[in-house]
Amino acid sequence: QVQLVESGGGLVQSGGSLRLVCDASGSVFSIYAMGWYRQGPGKQRDLVASISTDGITKYADSVQGRFTISRDNAKSTVLLQMDSLKPEDTAVYYCNADPPAWAFDWGQGTQVTVSP
Questions:
Q1: Mode of pairing for the β-strands spanning 77-82 and 91-97
Q2: Angle CA(55)–CA(23)–CA(2) in degrees, nearest 5?
Q3: Which of 54, 55, 71, 107 could be disulfide-bonded to 4 (CB atoms 3.0-4.6 Å)?
Q4: pLDDT < 50 stretches in the chain
Q5: Smallest Cα–Cα separation from 67: which of 18, 11, 10?
Q6: What is the Cα–Cα distance from 69 to 60, expressed in whole angstroms?
């Protein structure tokens, strides 16, 4: 079972930037497409960005042009660079496979709070 640990969240003003890091244990990481998900207060968990095993990226319309996902298979990490943050980006951010896989345990996530 792959353990996922997210970090890098925090409190930032509107227009600011944050860089999220997802560390994955286990050797199967490199064979999965990976994604960053977020869950705002009272909302469902949604996929905001994903990256395939060969580096092809996809983004939700709400973050297109502001967020950048990348991965380092050698380090088993997935990064999410978030720029031009908006209050509506406030959420707990999680990483997992895309789509979520039985082999990956959801981590505790990392809280991102964007003030007006």
A1: unpaired
A2: 95
A3: 107
A4: none
A5: 18
A6: 12
